[in-house]
Write a structure and sequence with these properties.
6-stranded parallel sheet, 248 residues, elongated, Rossmann fold, 12 strands, 6-stranded mixed sheet, 2 domains, alpha/beta
Length: 248
């Protein structure tokens, strides 16, 4: 009987996970394993997925990284620390939450530059930003979150970002945690004063498709270093597989 793993989210037209894991299984000779896409319009459909397909593990993508927690019985320290889950391990009907985005972003960021800046801007306050925040706090990098609707003391809006020029100038690391620029909306990007960017800036885009987003392109034009989210995605995918197959 085949073991089933998969991905839940909506929409999943942009997902790389099924192709990645299918190729991994073939390359490494892992038999009797399937990786499926479960595109669900509501998180309330999750129990039906668990009952019908009996997956041993699931990845979780937008918009369910926070909503999925109501179906979780146990939390790994990674999920507790970040506050959202992108990996579920299912055994004997019990669902345990993990966060491999934390690991993927941390390893990718450290590998990119040995001496990281001490201040950063996080674009977006959704589920994707939570792992980034946890990593920056671990690395003791001060940050502000830029949100369309600020609700916390360390959040600012895009109007403030444009009006107070020192915010961009004093934040060498800028991380896009929004889906702006993701295929098929290739011409979109966060509403920044890109003219203030310099060669001292580092722009990290969690989006991986396309390879060069509009955000990255505009940064490159100002001399900034840029990086997309593909390496992070691969690292978190491998961490997911490790979690699903780790001994009890």
């Amino acid at each position: 009987m085949n073991k089933t793993y998969g991905l839940i989210g909506y929409p999943l037209t942009h997902s790389f996970s099924k192709k990645y894991f299918t190729e991994k299984f073939e390359k490494e000779g892992i038999d009797n394993v399937n990786y499926e896409l479960f595109e669900i319009k509501s998180i309330d459909q999750l129990p039906g997925i668990l009952e019908k397909h009996k997956p041993l593990g699931l990845n979780v993508t937008i918009p369910y990284k926070e909503q999925v927690l109501k179906y979780v019985q146990h939390y790994d320290t990674s999920a507790e620390q970040v506050g959202v889950a992108n990996v579920l391990k299912i055994k004997d009907g019990m669902v345990t939450a993990f966060n491999s985005d934390y690991y993927g972003f941390m390893e990718s960021l450290i590998a990119w530059k040995k001496n990281l800046p001490t201040k950063a801007l996080i674009l977006g306050s959704g589920g994707a930003s939570k792992a980034v925040i946890a990593v920056l706090e671990h690395l003791k990098i001060a940050y502000s979150v830029v949100s369309r609707n600020p609700t916390h003391s360390n959040e600012i809006d895009y109007i403030t970002l444009k009006n107070e020029v020192n915010i961009i100038r004093d934040s060498p690391l800028i991380i896009n945690c929004t889906p702006l620029g993701m295929y098929p909306n290739l011409s979109t990007c966060p509403d920044l004063p890109y003219e203030l960017l310099t060669s001292d800036h580092m722009l990290y885009d969690l989006v991986y498709n396309p390879e060069v987003t509009e955000f990255m392109k505009r940064g490159s034009e100002r001399g900034a270093k840029v990086k997309n989210g593909l390496e992070m995605l691969i690292l978190q995918a491998e961490k997911s597989w490790e979690i699903w197959n780790q001994p009890e």
